[in-house]
Amino acid sequence: MTWRPRLAEGTAPVLVVLLLLLVGLALAGPAYDEPSGYLALLKRAAPLMILAIGQYFVIVSGGFDLSVGALVTAGVVIAARLIDGDESATTPVILLVLGFGLLVGLVNGLITTKLLVPSFIVTLGMLLVLDGATFLWTDGAPRGALSAAFRTFGRGALDVPLLGEIPWSVLILLAILVAAALFMRSGTGRALVAAGDNEAAVRMSGGQVDRLRLLGFVLSGLLAAVAAILLGGFAGVSAQVGNGLEFRAITAVVLGGVLLGGGRGSVVAAAAGALSLEALFTLLNLLGVSGALESAVQGLIIIAAVAYASLGGGLRQRLRTRPKQRNTVQPAPS
Amino acid sequence: MTDVTPRVRLTGITKSFLGVPVLHGVDLDLRGGEVHAVMGENGAGKSTLLKVLAGVHRPDGGTIEVDGAPASFAGPTDAQRAGIAIIHQEFTLLPHRSVAENVYLGREPVRRMQVDRRRMVADTRDLLDWLGEDGIDPTDAVSSLSVAQRQVVEIVKALSTDARVLGMDEPTAALADHEVELLYDLVRRLRERGIAILYVSHRMREVFDLSDRITVLKDGRLVTCAPTGELTPEDLVRYMVGRDLGEYYPDRAAPGDLGPVRLALRGAGNARVRDLDLEVRAGEIVGLAGLQGSGRSALARAVFGVEPFTTGGLEVDGAVRRVTRPRTAVRLGIALVTEDRKGDGLALRQSVRDNTLLVRRAALGGRRARARSDVSRLLDLVTVVARGEHQEVRFLSGGNQQKVVLAKWLAVEPRVLLVDEPTRGIDVGAKRAVHELLRDLAKRGVAVLMISSELPELIGMSDRILVMHDGALAGELPAGASEGDVMALATGHTAGAAA
Amino acid sequence: MSILQQHTTARHTVRRPALRRRFTPVVVVYLALVALLVIGSVLVGVRGEVLLDQAGILNILTRSTALGLVAIGQTMVILTGSLDLSVAYLIGLTSLIAAETMAGQDGMVVPGVLLALAVAAAVGLVNGLVITVLKANAFIATLGVALILRGYLEDNYTGPAGDVPRGFQHLGYDRIGPLPVAALLMLAVAALAWWYLSRTRPGYHIYAVGGDIEVARLSGVPTRRVVVTAHVLCSLAAGLTGIYLASRLGSGAPYVGTDAGYDLESIAAVVLGGTLLAGGRGGVVGTIGGVLILATLDTIFDDLAVDPFFKDVVRGVVLVTAVALYARRMMADRTRGRLA
Predict the structure, then answer these.
(1) Where are the beta strands (DSSP E) in C4-49?
(2) Which domain holds residue B18?
(3) What is the CATH number of the domain that holds C172?
(4) In terms of domains, do B223 and B346 share one?
(5) Residue range B76-131, pLDDT digits in tens
(6) How distant is the Cα of B231 from the closest Cα of chain C, in angstroms?
(7) Is residue A271 within 8 Å of residue A256, measured between CB atoms?
(8) Is any Cβ of chain B less than 8 angstroms from the Cβ of A206?
């Protein structure tokens, strides 16, 4: 079999959309004549892309994670209060925030798989708990301040030879994206998707479906913590920093052609979906469309994306299967 | 007690699917107050005939008459209007709703804007009483009923449409033995009340116990139609299997090919099977025969740890093992090709490659899961025809899907291979390839336990045949045993038939 | 199977259902509510106050009214196996439409109400059609509609608008004895919904579609129509909520629905009330129980002067615990069904 470039089912549309948006940006804004403009876009998009990657792991294995927005807020608020401007606290607090995200994912996953509560409800409950607990602990308003070192990840840049200044968040995003893409090519990654597609088949193949899904939730929690660190640096400490991010991340994943309910879609496409969303908002902004309409446009495109996937995709499949049934004996293109 | 005009008369029914003829001019008539059994092997055309009657399939040729007048069904609703109702093998009930609500689903009687619950319950109770079923209350939730009682509800649902013709497709398949008796009773009562019943089954005992006439189909043709009293079980077996014996099967194992015992059961049992004693050696293919529900699949699932044995012992390569989940079984070198390849064999939206590597990745993980290079070798071995390794398996034909299932197990080099209906619903060419592959594996020292409802296949492939009946092993037959012998053991009709 | 075994299993199937029926989720919810009221009364009593005095009852019922109305609608869609994330923005939108149409004139009350309900019905129709015709997942479809509504609200409003005439504000504040009129109206809507779900044919079909859409279709139930109708009814309930809130606030407010989180909160109340998120089982009676529990919790915490954020934590824990308990019962049911 000859190798040829191949895209996971449902990936192509989002890449086309992304390309169009990037071209649109180049035409609309002078800032996008140079790579730095795109770099800034990427930097802005990094937290959402990371959240989308985390959400992807949960969705592709057949669940939902509604708790990530609240987790981002919690992460930022916790970090601000614990660091309280103390530079030396940066590293332990970062580790603590990551550990916290991991723990939240673990709890989500355990309740979903062991107590058989639908993940929608579990993570909704977690959202309420996190929102309440965070502010309970800080008496209602975020207190303290992040250290400069902490904020570097969200707003700083690293001087890379030949390439110039690359924002930290872009580097972190790329590292996560590459790791996620490699993970999804690994045995465990493929088994994760298979579990979202047909749980029984994975179990009957000797797989541990519960552990796989648990892993999805843990990764989602961990990546939400990473996004919190970047957003804390980028946007600063506020009680609203994570508001609505869970829905935005799910939107991005769906836009990337990932099937809600699991079993299909690629992690790169999910990240591309997130980048497309940010690019779209930027473009609308450049075109002078009121920021208020952003969400209306977002609403329209996700409905269109899902309708396209279920109607357009269905039609394509039907056309594709029919000739196959008639003649099963045909030379293998090996 | 039978009417002169048949309730339904089918004449010269032909039907093809994608150019493959399934029925060649079949005649059938159903009279009121009669149980008419239709028998035949898998693929004989029984279910297709039933679906033609139900209006699910439109025949390509032939005529349908209802009460002497020509009829044509555009869909199931038309057949229903003509008084024909079919009870399918799968249940069509909502577990959380009451019996009455299920019976009248979609046709609820309405009075003054409200569903007339009183009437619905009363009518359902009438129907239940009419059938003599007083153990079921119309207000019970279906989820609180036993499987047999649910079947009764299905029948009541069918009757509530004023059906006078009832088609039943393997109605005892899901029932336990004592429940079968209840169903018998019910069918007899329906007959007494003048309903015409088409009873599709391949259980000898049922057919002789219940039916007034028997029609035998073979390869889509009518072989015979005669009153039950004029037929013996031996006749039926002959009618059903009388075929060209020109089919080719790979050579059997020579005595010297057999190796040590790979899989052994010592008095093993659980809720579905009991007292199982058997050994399968390296290098042999042991056939496991039995009717649906006899416990063949339950045996395989128990060995594989899906519904583990609760008594007795299981030995793999001479060591006593406790297998309580599939993962353990896989790691011990046991593989199970299940009968439901779409339900629990394949992840249909994943690629051929991902499915091939599914077991290796899911059960073994880590470093052993890597070795990617040999996927194409495996696929060549099982001769999968696909556009490429990255094609999703749902786009493959049934035969190629089954080959992928086999490939996914070959990828972990099992020592014990359990195959349940390995060639169901696949074409002749693929069937042959699967047969050769199984024999090839046996030659390489795999112990193969093969379940099949297709007797020629089972007999053609097996080095010896174990027959199950009612959850236990009923006997063992040597290679090349006759179909009559197998059927006799499987139907529990032991006396005389083996001669 | 021996004769003896047959007898014991037979007796099980006869006796167990009766016991089960006594402890349906609805009963559990109301028992929990009673327990909560008792414990709450004791805790509040320790502080020398009374939980269920006139003010306390008023407080619980007022808190229940808006959430109750939304949750009644949400029950309908969840029972069909769908869900609606657009209700929160729809509440804001309808409050504005009602208040702006009324514009302080008593004569415009009826047109205002009707217009708000018409818009609500249209939004429900869109939700239903996107789900059934475009075959979009309900989560995404209603999220998309929610975002569109949000965009409209953000683009056109920055704060409260419109003016509800004094006469109409009576709806929000009048009482009959200790009972607020609006709460009674909400209970009347609940009774109507209960009747619709448990007594009418379309109601039966809602359960059938949520239970198993294939079985429903094969039995001749018009499944698409059932889903669309449920969404229209859900949106109408959200519209009523918007109108009620407008009457209480005296004007329309774009974020009155989202600030209270009525989208997720209503789903939580429905699920807390014992309705299966996957559909096909549950009902309005349980939902009202779930709403009352949430309202009572709030009231108790207020009386105890507990930090408001603690409420969210308790809510989350209560929600997940309740659903975990229901899931265990379902599992028990299923194993029993298999063995029977």
Answers:
(1) none
(2) 8-241
(3) 1.10.3470
(4) no
(5) 778 888 899 888 766 689 988 999 999 999 889 999 889 999 999 999 999 888 87
(6) 32
(7) yes
(8) yes
